[in-house]
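INFO batch 0412 | record 1 of 1 | parsing
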Amino acid sequence: MASIQTLTEEERRVVARWAVTCAERVLPMFDAEPMAQEQIRDAVVRTRAFSAGSSTAAEEIRKRLVAVKAAKAATTPQGAAAARSVAQAASVAHMGAHALGAAAYAVKAMSLANPARPEAVTDEIAWQLAALTDEEQSILRQLPPVGSDSSGPLGPGLMSRGILGDVIRELQAQIA
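INFO prediction complete | emitting tokens
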């Protein structure tokens, strides 16, 4: 049985647009060797193509871990979080719940880049919510609450703890 966190392919295409939009906003924070920079930029382009219906889920699923590996080349913690945001967005082709992961890592990047501005977190969440279309909100409402379903990225693991979990809980509360 498919995970409740997967969503249909059409729904994944829709929420991929929002996920990659969130990731692109923090992408300038990512600094790494040229090869890793190119891999992250390519993941953004591929995610946009998937969202537009120009690539297949199977192709994107095969390539989603490229961005995960490239994130390890980041020279700063905020850069690593920004690259992980892109990696989460690229993984939406596999499972729709990764859209919330992309948003959460983007907020984490903003937080790390602005330690003297705690409002950077609430400002980024507000921006992300404003960037959501009604259709995207409707689709994201189908996802289980973070930490409640172990069949995907929203399970009781990394995405349910710390700032990532806090951000996803806030997004889900505001979207509900």
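INFO post-check: The chain has a mean pLDDT of 95.
INFO record closed
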